[in-house]
Amino acid sequence: MGKKVVVLGVDGVPYTLVQRFIRDGVMPNLAGIVKKGTLAQMDSSLPEVSSVAWTTFATGANPAAHGIYGFMDLVPGTYKMYFPNSQNVKQDAVWEIIGKSGKRSVVVNVPNTYPAKAINGSLVAGFVAIDLKKATYPESTYNYLNSIGYRIDIDSQKARGSQDYLVEDLNNTLEKRKEAVLHLFDNEEWDLFIAVITETDRLHHFMWDALDDAGHKYHSFFRDYYKKIDEFVGIVYERTLKVNPESTFMLLSDHGFTKIEKEVYLNCWLKENGYLKTTKEPASSTEDIADGTRAFALDPSRIYINMKGRFPKGCVNSGVEYDKLRVELSENLLKTGVIKSVFRKEEIYSGPFLDMAPDLVLLPEDGYDLKGSIGRSTFMEKGILQGMHTYHDAVFFIDKPLEREEKMNISDVAGLVLEGLGC
Amino acid sequence: MREVVTIVSGLPRSGTSMMMRMLEAGGMGIVTDSVRSADEDNPRGYYEFEDVKRIKDDASWLEGAKGKAVKMVSMLLYGLPQDRTYRVIFMRREIGEVIASQRVMLERMGERNIPEDDEMGRLYKRHLEEIERWLEGQQNIKVLYMNYKDVLEDPQGGALRISRFLGDSLNVEDMVRAVDMSLYRQRSQAKNSNEKDLPHAGDMEKEDSDKIEAQLKALGYM
What we know:
The structure holds 2 protein chains of 2 kinds.
Chain A: E1 5-10, H1 15-24, H2 28-34, E2 38-43, H3 50-59, H4 63-66, E3 73-74, E4 81-82, H5 94-99, E5 105-110, E6 121-125, E7 136-137, H6 139-148, H7 156-161, H8 163-187, E8 192-197, H9 199-207, H10 219-243, E9 248-252, E10 256-259, E11 262-265, H11 266-272, E12 295-298, E13 302-305, H12 320-334, E14 339-344, H13 345-348, E15 360-364, E16 368-371, E17 380-381, E18 387-390, E19 394-398, E20 408-409, H14 413-420
Parallel strand pairs in A: 1-8, 1-9, 2-20, 5-6, 5-8, 11-16
Antiparallel strand pairs in A: 2-19, 3-4, 6-7, 9-19, 10-18, 11-17, 12-13, 13-15, 14-15
Helix pairs in contact in A: 2-10, 8-9, 8-10
Chain B: E1 5-10, H1 16-25, E2 29-31, E3 68-73, E4 86-92, H2 95-108, H3 117-136, E5 141-147, H4 148-153, H5 155-165, H6 172-178, H7 185-195, H8 204-218
């Protein structure tokens, strides 16, 4: 029997929370499993959002090589926004790489794999998949998922209005996810099995405050939800060993999470400081950017210099003017007290699609959730969401010894997957 | 050179918009209108000028195009008045790529009566032979042939050749920046969509973008 690899993704689960829940007895199965290998804190992608991070996981490449910089991007040479999808990914994912040598994969719910591409195996796309049929390959998998009432994601729009609804939706979606994952695990042929649980990320976005507030209506629900996750991890691990005791089992998240103190609207700051001008107030999109704009932001932390030759209303010359503006912006942003680091694109990215990259990428202080919305008139405010992503606190586990001098980065995982498969 | 009109020409989808973008970035004035705006097929815009289509009937706009560049598909070059001098940058691109790129664009526009590739290929090949022969005989037209793929692979070399052809008046560095590698993906995308089973390619974005936007907003993005 050939080597097999199982990767279980838990979206947005922090390493520090896993450690805490292991210590507190909330995750007894994981407590036992991690003794058999290496549990590590891992850095995410920049920006630390799921579409970028999971694409980085899947390809082992950085955004300038795989081409995904965020949930939304700009049509080159315009201010028009589009939503990158699987067809915008410019590097092969691990399941495509191994598919070329005849190995089969089952891939369930990995973000940014929509619409589903044909692979050697089965693929069920994850967030932001809209239509289950388009999200699934092959049709037999769609027929099965449709028959069980599979849910791609919770209804976040409804969840904003009702925590009771959110709780019910989180439970229902997780149950369907588990059912589908275990069915495909048992009934499909595969060498590589990847499944991602997205519900943890949704729980955190809407209810992070329930984690430490014993008086919160859903404090127990939060912990109990992790018990369900732990139970599922235990089942998948057990079945992995049954398939082949020599299999490699990994668990990872795409980023960490922490409490939101304030949402920070970067375009508001850029406007207040004279870098951004819009044709109307409030602006409704980046297409409302006006002449004289020197910089603007896209979600969550991407700053673009409005350069001549790159954008239609570009006014910043390449060379000295561009470099000076980046330095000036970096210094001024760091003075706001909510930005921990500012990266120039060439510091963090390399590859053929560097020209699509934001010119600066920001890393906030914990608690300050960066936003790119262009229509806001307030620099900082507190909204309905309770949790925000973090870069430095993703989790990674492999049931093998893993000796590394440097901290793990999510881009390292694809290599370990291929290694586990003997590729 | 100020009296000369520069024409960027070639088959449709042969890289003429990219060449216009390079010239504009290099500091050359361009003649265009906003009738056809940027889209997925030419994300940085088409640089078209509607009046060129009527050049046989009215070429008066050429006076305002002196010292500037204008885009004109090669079929229209025959209409250039003989009493002026022109520099023509003629874009060459492998005909199979041209057809693949046109097909993607036409399909996206909802065009149903698309000729077969073989037929289009034969027509284009014959046209190119004729127009190049015709250009050779025009005393008032100087021609620089540029290969689309070569420009993408060596933007520096391409920009230098163009700048020299136009009297060394352009900023080569900025021209190089304007070359967008991502546009060359059109070829591989078209190829992939034929070779691979991409079951749900097409207008997914238009259909689903509102729903995607709503989902993202609900989670605090945008």
